[in-house]
Amino acid sequence: MKKIIYLTAIFLFIIVPQINAELYTDGYVQGLFGGQLNKDNPTKSDQSVSETRLQMRMESVGDQGEFVSRIDFVYDGLAEEQKQYDWEIREAYLKFRLGSKLDFKVGRQILTWGTGDLIFINDVFAKDYRSFFLGRDDQYLKAPQNAVRMEYYNSLGSFSFVFSPTFESNRLPTGEKLSYYHPSYGIVATGMGEEFYFNADEPEKTFKNSEFAARFQRQVGMYSLAFYFYKGFYKNPIGLEVATNGLMPVYPRMEIHGASIRGAKFGGIFWLEGGYYNSKDDPDGDNPLMPNSSVSGMVGFERQVATGFTVNLQWQADKMFDYNYFVAEQESMGATHYRDEIKHLVTSRWTKMMSDETVTVSAFIFYSPDEKDFYFRFSTEYKYSDEIKLTIGANVFDGKYANTEFGSLDLNDNIYTKMTYNF
Amino acid sequence: MKESHLAYFYSGDDGLSDVKMTIVSKKGKERIREFIMIRLDIEEGGNQKYYTYFKKPSDVSRITFMVHKTSEGNDQRWIYIPSIDLIKPISADDKNSSFVGSDFSYEDVSGRHWTEDTHSLKGEETLDGKAVYVIESVPKKKYKGFSRKVSYIDKESMLPLKEEYFNKKDKLVKEFSADKIEVIDGIPTITVRTMNNIKKGGHTTVSFNKISYNVGIKEDIFTERYLKNPPRKYIKK
Fold first, then answer.
1. Which of A101, A162, B188, B214 has its CA 20 to 30 A from that of B228?
2. Domain A18-422 CATH superfamily
């Protein structure tokens, strides 16, 4: 592992400066302020977010390759003393080509594939749901990860391989700004005490615990066909391990095999995607502490219904294997509500652009008829000029049961306002 | 009309240009879009491919956009958003929708195929000292963009010097004008053009800089690979 780091360092410091490169910089400054709509939310503050962010983008383009970096500096008004200043390298990668068929992207990067709109089956690259729920820009839903991406192109199509030496988990509510569900105590947050700061056990940073993802993609007429593979861990800590002080949430091992098709049809775009989640720590489904294997499928369609007005609709079904074991486990624990064997999720996005595309009104809803919960996102964005953008938005969660995906976020309803200056 | 269409939208076998779009609102507020546009004609008067790399403003910089245009009209469009590494196909049904918030529609940028309208010669005139044909085009199928268009086509270059778009009430809603024509690589080219939005107020002026034709652009540029990795040979900031 060290060798790779040394080689990368040598490459960065010795080879890169040799490349006759041009340097470009830009970025933005953004203020984001939000308030909680629910007084009962057990977080410390009734503000959901209060932060100022500076993003610096730098791009150095040469004949042999390019270097891109995006660094965020954040002042978090809600954080404790000494922890108010934070920064993150969102991207810092080197992109180059070997021969005519191989493309490399090496370093910290954002990765995306798959066909869904905010539904991810084969895209298990790290997500930041905390940012997503608080009203940060859409780009923050994708968390960066350290990776080497290699893409090989030939007449069959494109082959992509992504290797991440260390596991990168999803960023979920921890109780700090957003409350979460605790199986013993219900909806909790750090406002109830430090012990409610969510903590999961990450896999050790060893070679064995690295992540590997692959995709083969091919254009067939008007359709784009893809096959996916992933080997690593569930990105959410949905497993449990017996520890000295009780049960500790962990990220169980898993593999995904999936496929998708996307293309133009019926005056719009349609997509179909499926994946088989193989739970390696519970192959028979009889371990109550580990998730069962499952298969998930989705279908979606998007079209422009009027000038500047686009609507889409998606339906996802997720089937759990060895469901009878799961039921027995839930019954023995005396659970009042647990998921159906097949879980459904319906989503819809509505986007309307007005006034020469300076005003964008957008709404997105996730709704599960069998889990009886929903999540509604709304925003209105006004581009005052090429530099200044004003946004107001809301995130609303509701559910009949506290242990469902959105029901567990029930108390986190918030509204926010955001002002961005691009330079 | 075919000849004019070819002169305007199919200049050379391919084209590369630096484009600056100035969108002026009714109240006089200006917004700027700067991008690099690469075009390849797969067949003269037929299928075309377009590649666009946005430079400014900074909130859209590095975004790339690709169109596969067919003469049958079932175009395909894709956009790549680098900040989230996302390639998204865009529903291309409404060709009359605005191109990046400007007064030009997608079709105004890449051209409406001449076979979609019935054309008739209305007369011959002189416009700004140039001899022009006056041609009226009426869509064969009902079309949102216009119900009648009058074009003033320069007899010499076969380029449209002016176009008037009428709605179904026969009111003038949009007016196109060629503000500057230059000869580039032996090809007469409209280097500054304006679309005046009479109905809404406001206008958009597009100026083309550093145009080059027949640069030998290869078809593989118009694929997802290059959408994600802009062809730096042609794309400099």
1. B214
2. Porin (2.40.160.10)
Contacts of A105 (CB under 8 A, 6+ apart): A93, A94, A95, A147, A148, A149, A151
Q: Calculate how close chain B gets to A90, using CA atoms only, in Å.
A: 9
Do residues A340 and A370 make contact, with C-beta atoms less than 8 angstroms apart? Answer: yes
Q: Is residue B235 part of a domain?
A: no
Rounded to two decimals, the ipTM of the complex is 0.90
Closest residue in chain B to residue A69, using alpha carbons only: B83
- Chain A residues within an 8 Å CB radius of B74: 222, 264
pLDDT in tens, B76-88: 889 999 999 999 9
Flag whether pLDDT at A228 surpasses 80. Answer: yes
Give the tokens for residue B211: 């145009």
How many domains in chain B?
A: 1
Q: B82: distance to nearest CA of chain A, Å? A: 9
Query: With 90 as the cut, is the pLDDT of residue A81 above it?
Result: no
pTM of the model: 0.91
Put simply, whether A20 touches B (Cβ < 8 Å) is: no
pLDDT at A5: 58
For a pLDDT cut of 70, what percent of chain B falls above it? 98
CB atoms inside a 10 Å sphere around CB A408: 21
Beta strand spans in A202-328 (E): 211-220, 223-233, 239-243, 246-250, 253-265, 268-279, 294-306, 309-320
B64: containing domain: 2-228
Per cent of chain A over pLDDT 90 is 80
The tokens describing A359, both together, are 């005003």
Q: Looking at the domain assignment, is residue B237 inside a domain?
A: no
Q: Which of residues 238-297 of A touch B (CB under 8 A)?
A: 262-264, 267-269
- Residue B28 sits in a domain of what CATH number? 2.50.20.10
